[in-house]
Amino acid sequence: MSDFIYPIFLVDGAGKKIEINSMPGIYRLSIELVFKEIEDCRRLGIESFVIFPAIEESLKDPLGKYSYSDKNFYLRAIREIKSRFPDICIVTDVALDPYSSDGHDGIVKNGKVLNDETLDVLAKMSLAQAEAGADILGPSDMMDGRVGYIRRELDAKGFTSVSIMSYSAKYASSFYGPFRDALDSAPKSGDKKSYQMDPANSREALLEAELDVLEGADFLMVKPALAYLDIIYRLKEKFQIPIVCYNVSGEYSMIKAASKLGFLDEKAIMKETLLSMKRAGSDIIITYFAKSFGEIMKNEFPS
Ligand code: PBG
């Protein structure tokens, strides 16, 4: 189970457990329920978590300033989780979209996403997350040059052992729909095609990955996973650092919905798809199925 990372959606407040409509079995949780979730996961052998914040609309602005504010509940939660569970691995999300009133991963001006201006905010956010205790930062924004920029800032401030898991080959995919529901983070206008990759390109993924490696990435990610197994394979062949795939929200919802209708056998399909990601070359899989898979493993191989 150590090859899995389980995503958690964090919401501010207390006693909140709100199911995400398009993702049955996945919830937005407030902090004390996140503690419980982590305890449940650890019993199944899951030790790594990627945490995403759902931010209230009133805290969003065009520059995403709340992302590194002292008052940020996401940063506070990371601190609390780390002090309670010092041994687990926490991956954070570095991108503007949860904090941006425009719903984009970068700063928008006159309808355009500004790459270089965004880097500075990403670096501030990264430092704040490192200070809060994140083990691995996950820049999911796809701005050019951000891995190097963030690495330099981290090293300069003494965070040399905080790693970077770069969303290197992140495609402009329709499979992210349910995730954007989960966070209310859909773009208010336009789409993400100017910074996320064209699904028709494969060689661009190699180039993006190579730049990330040169800039100091510790892990390379392919996202989504299922429709991009060829990209996982290619990256695994070419690069020596661990390859991560993100089995995204739409891939989860698809299986859940078809199983609910009785069209597919959920367990069997889940196992087969996770296996395909491994076979393609993923060292690590980020998946909403991690817990269900852990339960199956526990039943099949009780220790
Ligand atoms: C955005 C981000 C997205 C996901 C993770 N980080 C969505 C997007 O690019 O709009 C998607 C994950 C999923 O669909 O499960 N920073």
Q: What is the topology?
A:
Layout: E1 4-11, E2 17-20, E3 23-29, H1 31-43, E4 48-54, H2 73-84, E5 89-94, E6 107-109, E7 112-114, H3 115-132, E8 136-139, H4 146-156, E9 163-170, H5 177-183, H6 203-215, E10 219-223, H7 229-238, E11 243-247, H8 249-260, H9 266-280, E12 284-287, H10 290-300
Helix pairs in contact: 3-4, 7-9
**Widest β-sheet, arrangement of strands:** 1-4-5-8-9-10-11-12
> Mean pLDDT, rounded to whole units?
96
Helix and strand composition category: alpha/beta
Name of the top-level CATH class: Alpha Beta
Rg calc? 18 Å
Please name the defining characteristics of this protein.
alpha/beta, binds ligand PBG, globular, two-stranded antiparallel sheet, 303 residues, eight-stranded parallel beta barrel, TIM Barrel
What report would you give on this structure?
This protein has 303 residues and is α/β, with parallel strands linked by helices. The chain has a single domain (4-300), classed as Aldolase class I (TIM Barrel, Alpha-Beta Barrel). It contains ten helices and twelve strands. Helix 3 (115-132) crosses helix 4 (146-156) and helix 7 packs parallel to helix 9 (266-280). The chain binds ligand PBG. Ligand PBG binds next to helix 5.
Describe the structure in brief.
A hairpin with a 2-residue loop joins strand 6 (107-109) and strand 7 (112-114).
